[in-house]
Amino acid sequence: MNQNQPDEQIFFNDPALDRAFGVVMALATEVYVLKDRQTALERILSRNGLLDLELLDAEPSEEERLNSKSDREQFVYHLMQSLTGKQVSKG
Amino acid sequence: MNRSAIINKRAFSAAQDFILSTKTFWTIEIFSQLDKEKQTEEIEKTTTYKFFAWLERHLQRYKYSGRYGIYNFYNQQHEKIKSPPKNHKNLKLDPSIKLPKYYTQIDIHQHPGGLSKDKTAGYVYEHGARSTTPLGVRNHQDLHHRFTNSILASGNPKKILDMACGFGKSTQPFYKKIPEAKIIGIDLSEPCLTLGSSIARKDQASNVTYMQVNAEKTNFKNKQFDLVTSTMLLHELPPKSIKNIISEAHRILKPGGKMVHLDFYLLPDRFKRFIHFGHSKRNNEPYMVSFAKMDITGILKTLGFSNITIEPFEEADGVLDPEYQAWRFPWTLISAEKQ
Predict the structure, then answer these.
(1) How far apart, in whole angstroms, are the C-alpha atoms of residue B222 and residue B226?
(2) Residues B91, B94, B97, B101, CA torsion sign
(3) What is the pLDDT along chain B (339 residues), one digit of tens a residue?
(4) Which residues of chain B lie closer than 8 angstroms to A21, CB-CB?
(5) Residue at A87 is within a domain
(6) In Å, how far is A46's CA from the nearest CA of chain B?
(7) Between B11, B59, B66, which is nearest A33 by CB?
(8) Per the structure, how many domains does chain A have?
(9) In which domain, by residue range, is A45 found?
(10) How near does any CA of chain B get to the CA of A43, in Å?
(11) Quick check: is A39 in a domain?
C-alpha cells in the first residue's frame, strides 16, 4: 500500500464506519464467490453421479446436529467474543 | 504466483455479478428511499443518503480494484493477453501525442492508471463499460444502437467522425449499419484504439479507421465530414477543451453537416443536480459539474451552428416516464447543424 495515496472520501459521521463497512462488503463478496463455487462443485459432482443432492439437501438428523454442536458453538464464541468488550489476556 | 492466489474466471465472474447485483439494488431500492422533496442539506444528513453515497463510491472501487477487481483480473492475465497488432491499415497511432492534463491527472471512473499506458487498459475499460448503465443488463437495446438509430432516422451520412471513440463501442453501430459510409474513430488512448481496431477486423469491417488524435485539434481538412459525434465525452473535459472540440467539429463539418453529442447535461431540478454533482466527486469525474453549468446553446450559436436541439435521451424503454423511480444518468442528446 502506497503511503502517499490521498485519504479516501468519508460519508459517515464516524470514519470508522466507512472503513468497517468496506470490510463487510469485501467479506460479502468473498461469501458469494464461495457460495457460487460450492454450487458449481455440487452440480458437477451430481452430474457425474458422485453426489446425491437430495441427501445433501435433506434435514440433518438429530445425531448429525449434535455432532456439529461443539463446532458451531466454538464458531459463535469466536464470532461474538469481541462484543463483550473484555480483555482476553491480562494487561 | 500459486494457483490459489490467481483469481479464476468463475470467481471473478461471481464477484463482478455480486457487485453488479448490489449496484442494481442501490439503483432501485436505495435511491428510491431518498426524500426528493427535502432540501439537499437535509438529505445529506440522513443515514440512507450516507449509505447511498458510500455504495456509489465503493461499489465502483470494488468493480475496478482489489482482489476481484477488473484491473487485477486483467493484469493477472497480463502474460496471456497478446497485444493486437499495431501495424494494421485500420489503425493509425501517434507515439508523439501529448496527453492533456485532465486526462492523466486523475483516474477517471476510479479505473487505476486510467486509459493511457497499460496494455490491458483497453480490456479493463471494455469490461467496465459493460455495466455503465446498471440496469442495462436487462433486456433492452444497447444505448449506442439507440443513439445511432436516432441519428440515422434523418438519413445516412457518408463520412463520419466519432470523437473519443474508446475501443469503438460507439463506432461499431455506425460501421455495421451503414457499410457504404467512411467512418473514422479518434481517441487519445492507444490501448483502446488498438482493441477497437482488433474488434473491427473480427467484424470484417473495412469502412472504419481508428486514429490516435486529440479531438481538440485534429489535422483533418476543413469541411469534410457529414457527421461528427461523441458519446460520454464532454462531461470529462474542462470548459476550454469543450469549446475547442465544438469549434473543431464546426471547422471539419461540411456546410449542412451535423454534430451530435450524447452526454450528461440536462438537470431540470435541484435534486437531480445534487445527485449528479455528488456522482461527479464520487466517481472521479470532476468536470461533470462545470459542463452541466455551461451555456452550450450560447456556445453553439456563437460558433455558427443552427437547428440546435438539446433534449433528454431515452437510453432504455420507459426511463423518461415521470413515474420512473430508479437512479439514472441525465442522458442528453445535443445536436446542431453547421450553417
Answers:
(1) 12
(2) positive
(3) 566 678 899 999 999 999 999 999 999 999 999 999 999 999 999 999 999 999 999 999 999 999 999 999 998 877 777 776 777 889 999 999 999 999 999 999 999 989 987 888 999 999 998 887 766 545 456 899 999 999 999 999 999 999 999 999 999 999 999 999 999 999 999 999 999 999 999 999 999 999 999 999 999 999 999 999 999 999 999 999 999 999 999 999 999 999 999 999 999 999 999 999 999 999 999 999 999 999 999 999 999 999 999 999 999 999 999 999 999 999 999 999 998
(4) 54, 58
(5) no
(6) 19
(7) B11
(8) 1
(9) 15-81
(10) 14
(11) yes
Nearest Cβ partner for B10 among A13, A29, A36: A36
Round to whole Å and give the CA distance between B121 and B125. 6
Residues of A in contact with B284 (CB under 8 A): none
Mapping DSSP onto H, E and C, the string for B49-75 reads: HHHHHHHHHHHHHHHHCCCCCHHHHHH
Interface test with A, best of B16, B50, B70, B285 (most A CBs within 10 A): B50
Bridge partners, residue B160, by sequence: B183, B227
Quote ipTM for the complex: 0.83
Q: Are B121 and B64 in contact (CB under 8 A)?
A: no
Interface of A with B (CB under 8 A): 9, 11-13, 18, 21-22, 25-26, 28-29, 32-33, 35-37, 40
**Domain assignment of residue A6, yes or no:** no
- Dihedral of the alpha carbons of A53, A55, A58, A61, in degrees to the nearest 10: -150
